[in-house]
User: Which sequence fits this backbone?
């Protein structure tokens, strides 16, 4: 009885650890995606600003 309880407890802990690891991986992917999106947005904004021709006033 005790060994069965311990075995199920260890299995539950392994499942929790696996779940936490997958959540961390998902979080990493979300952070990377947001970073890349920000980088692309920043580059597009910079190109847009630099491509506008400044109006020369004499």
Assistant:
């Amino acid at each position: 009885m005790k060994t069965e309880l311990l075995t199920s407890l260890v299995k539950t802990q392994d499942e929790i650890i696996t779940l936490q690891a997958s959540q961390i991986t998902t979080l990493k992917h979300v952070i990377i995606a947001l970073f890349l999106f920000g980088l692309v947005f920043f580059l597009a904004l910079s190109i847009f600003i630099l491509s506008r021709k400044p109006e020369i006033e004499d």
